[in-house]
Structures
1.
Amino acid sequence: MASNTKIKGFTLIESMAVLFLFTVAIVLSSQTYNNLVNSSVLSQNLQLAFDNFRFGAEKIWNEIKNGSNFIVSQNSIEFLDRNCNKVQFYLNQNNNIIFNINNNETPLFDSELVKFNSFEIFYDQPSGNSLIDPYFKYSNKIFLIKYSVILQAKTLNIPLEIYQVVAPSNSAFINNPCQ
Amino acid sequence: MNKAFTLPELFISLLILSLSLVFLVTFSNSYLSILNDIRKRYLGLNVAQAGLEYAIALRNKQIENNQNPWSGVFSSGSYCLSFNTTTKRINIFSSTQPCPSEIPGYSRLLFYKDFENPNNNNLNNARAIKVISESYFGKDKIRLDIVLTKWHPIQR
């Protein structure tokens, strides 16, 4: 006895439509996921580069803040630190700042993360006398440091230009507390 | 009779799918946006800190010259301080509006007032002064302050 129940399946067009929509959804999701992963990696690298710059710049700020006997040129500064060690910061040929303490040199920044375009130091001039020049002094009162760097995050390089100002603590009266 | 999906069911499922995609895209963009905010605030912090350093340097210069430590700030109020890289001097002038800083897009204003007696407007004889440095960038601002004494800590 023949059954008159008709089992209805999907037509070819229905199956094609479902497959098409499924493919579109998969492509969109994977693109979004890729973007998410890429931006996560990029921001992690940028954060690393930024932190590396920040820590290095703070090191320079702290050392100058507690320094004395400053000898300054446009992209180098030499002085005695709080323990009377001879310290120098300067820009080398590999576009990195070198921290030299008692003739032991260490690069201050990770070259893969931070690349220096320029490192300039501006300072007040200790000259004149108290009667005619209000800037008469024994030591520098202020340093303005200009950092021009590239933060390197593998696929993206971000330029950063920042100024840091330091008024050394030992800048009134005495220039050489280590004597 | 096999029942197919109704229009509201389809609409809701598509809405959920779209929302999840939008959420993922927004989430991926917010990483970089947060990082950009950190960079802006770091620059703003440096601008505000620079203001305090100028105030310290100005005080130290005056003490060394045996002059009134509050050079150019004889009355409480708001001032602009900056360093002129050509003349190699710190400039100070009274202002009610923030002045441009070293970094384009960032401005700064400093407020001086007597620390012991905030109602005293004449700072000539003040023993200690509270200096507030504010940096402004976009809609944000960063505020730092310091108390400066009329003597230097290492003064002999």
2.
Amino acid sequence: MLFYKAWLESKLRFLVGVAAVIAVCVLYIRVRLILVPDWIAELQNPKWSGRPTWLFHGVHDLNFYAWHFLFENKLQQVWVLFAILLSFGGLVREKEQGTSAFSLSLPVSRNRWLMTRMLVATAESFVLGLAAGLAVLLASWSIHERYPLGQVIAHCLLIVTAGVAFLALGAVFSTLIRGEHMALPITLVLLGGPYLWIQEYIRKAAPTVWVHRVDISHVMAGPPHLTWATTPWLGLAVSFSLAIGLLSVAAKIGESIEY
Amino acid sequence: MPAIVETVDLKKSYAAVEAVRGINLRVPEHSICAFLGQNGAGKSTTLRMLMGMIRPTMGTGRIFGLDIASERDSVRIRERVAFVAEDKRLYEYMTVAQIIRFTRSFFPRWRDDLEPSLLERFELPPDRKIRKLSKGMRTKVALLLAFARGSDFLILDEPTEGLDPVSIEQVMQILVSLVADGATVLFASHQIAEVEQVADYVVMIHRGQIVLDAPMDGVKNEYRLIQAMFSTPVDKRDFQLAGIERVYSEGPIVSVVVSRNVDAIVEQVRAMQATSVDVVPLSLKEIFLETAKGRQ
């Protein structure tokens, strides 16, 4: 029943999240129909020297195009936003709403409340990833191109598994920041700024820079063509370790709060 | 009688403010214990400490022999305790039926016999969302969820606040029947008339300290107001016997509130040449007011 309660509390955010990831995926795949003819014209123009390196691959390879615009970029950002949103809630929010006394009268430890909410948020984030994958597949089919099923599944799984650290970070912020309406904006500012900055920095930095290996957004994207060998295992391990550490912090803070 | 709750020198401070100042509380098994006090006296803080929601600054507390300050013990305590908080806020997005189903899942001894009868007695609509219920109805849902848990011990913070007199009477009857079935009740209330009706023990707290802890019968039998008239004005300082709680004098008329030793005090007053002496029993409300006033 704790899972049921967590689901009731987060289902609206989850459904909006599903709609958002589907919209982003469908939009970016469908817009390829408009972009590719323009890009081909640009590539054939000998006078145009400022073309980015990814443009050639973007025109000829849907796999690369989807990776560049979605898995490395917009889909990942939307997924992170909703992962944080889904991880919000719990006893601290209940304290603001006045229901924490009822919840804490039940024979459930504070850690169990936290873990239940995190499991539900993880499951919902996983479904967001699946919804995104399905949307990419169907949208590709609608523009008469094929995106390999295995790659879609692999990329969506990578986003979700590498992104658990963001879920855990959401749990920490949700526990730390007491005000019901302030927690999310503060989290997004504190998290979103560095996240976007690191993404931008990584994109410009040399590929050997060490941050590549531990930058979670880079790990979530993986390489365009994902195989067992190219999966960023070290980055995944860093993300999981970070998630465990952050959840321990959230649990510790949660235990010390007075209701 | 063995005690369900035992606290020793329980204290809670918030920065420089001492909300609870060394409470030694004992709630005997199979009894109704009323916990009285003014607003801000420390009642809710004490009850929340018992439920593990806030941690004591000092002192110890045990329920069923389990430590209230230990998270692991607190979960085990909550398996056997029903708690209704002062504000009685419930999950607004659930219906009455959903929150009953949700709560029932945590309590294997859920009273399947009591749940439908309480739904009927309290006239609660199972399909209505909590957010659409009136304050009184929400209180009734909170009470149903506590009563039907099949708990050995109920901690109720202002359980009848916002209820109409008929519902208050129903709640009192249910409390008495639960105790008859073997439960123990500790309830904080401002409704002293109700407390007087059902409580076996009364504990009064004032500014974080217990100022009265006694069986209800004892309190009712012992507390008296002695009104004496003298031919000439007398000095209040002449009334200093054990058992005298408070003395009011207005010229030749003296009123003495006593908590024990009534006969000896009456004898003493007569010996002071009083022209008339009346002994009047005090209601619990009067005792409460006198006790609070005496500590201002």
3.
Amino acid sequence: MSVEFKDYYAILGVSRDASADDIKKAFRKLARKHHPDVAKDKKAAEEKFKEINEANEVLGDPEKRKKYDQLGMDWQHAGEFPHAAHRGRAAAPHEFNFGGTGFSDFFEQYFSGASRYGFPEEMHPRPRAATRKHRGNDIEGDILVTLEEAMHGSVRSVSLQMADPRTGKLQTHSFQVRIPPGVTDGKRIRVPGQGEPGFSGGEAGDLYLRVRHAAHPDFNSHGADVFHELEIAPWEAVLGAEISVPTLDGTVKLRIPPGSENGQQLRVRSRGLPKGKSGERGDFHAVLSIQIPEKLTDEERSLWEKLRSVSHFNPRTHRQA
Amino acid sequence: MNFPHDDETAYSLDIVAEITGIPPQTILHYQEAGLIRSSTYDDETIRTLRRIEHLHSSLGVNESGLRLILMLMNEVDRLQNDLRSKR
């Protein structure tokens, strides 16, 4: 099973030396454009959205980005990358491919956070003789879940292709996985009996799918709490304001108190993700981010200059002895 | 369609014993030793029990070793998730 190299820089439309901030901005712009909720062609948008998310997952993480850059160089030199050698273990009978998890084979091969098994494979010795009843190994993988799915729950069709450890023959199993409402990032969903087949009448292992919340252009999640970076003007921070803010289910009116600071958090109770079946919900947090205007008109400039001359405000008073 | 893998599922001790093939007394012992959560049994408990069995039977890890390994694995998980949510 060879995998195709993915050019994550091209997917996000950024250069190879793009800063972390450039990547974040490019991701947000594309994610807004291709978000399945807003696009007309939902199916195509969904594919694109997953691709952008995957690129962001790798390039947005300094460690993964470093690994990816190295991988890219090796790939260019070696043509197709010998993935089995890279992982330092034998290929054939233990390889498997997921379908429907939202991640490409390339991502799963190199960047899937969890080991495919509960443990690195060498810790799972094969039974020496297939005469003793032996339960099949568990398999672990990642599944990309959008915040909207986490909000309402969904059912996903997932397939898993693997070689039968006894015959070496490739088999594909397809099954439905229920994503429960309120599922948090990092939560593992157990799919009974979809792991490796057992030996000599032993049961099959289970499949554990670790939930990865897809990055959203407007929201971050932490447990059941949802965070939104709310960009405001300096005068809104100083004078206060009332702003309509998007949440996962409709907008809320937020009152920015006068004298708000950069990074300050405003909480809206119970507008986050559901907390399981309890009926309770996490909170929504707007994190204030004061934006400085980049271009000034002559009039604006003269107003700032006037402010400078009349203001007694000194942000560095603590430095004066 | 029935989805037995709903993550909200809470199992009884007998069911967990049946799923994992670990005798109930042993599960209770792991619980008293603080290796698994004592409040409810769910899919995470099953996963932990399978890890315990594997570490114990295939690798010969003793109880103190188990406690340390499980604690470290949970900590790694927690830190990875924290790091992700900060990006």
